[in-house]
Amino acid sequence: MELNELRQMSPADLQVKEREVREEIFRLRLKLRTNQLDSVANYRKSRRELARILTLIRQKSTPVEAQAK
Residue 24: which of 2, 1, 58, 55 has the closest Cα? Predict the structure, then answer.
């Protein structure tokens, strides 16, 4: 998912997306450990997407004064 699309989402939508990505990472990690994963790149992409989502949730939850510092 594009960063601009994520930025337009509400904090509640981002939390739903976070849960979905965490579940996807769990499934990919199981496949990785059982040697059923074809490409490790998908696992890495999901981890990066989760990091982006968590960053946006954090940015949207902090007050504006804290972001200005």
Answer: 1
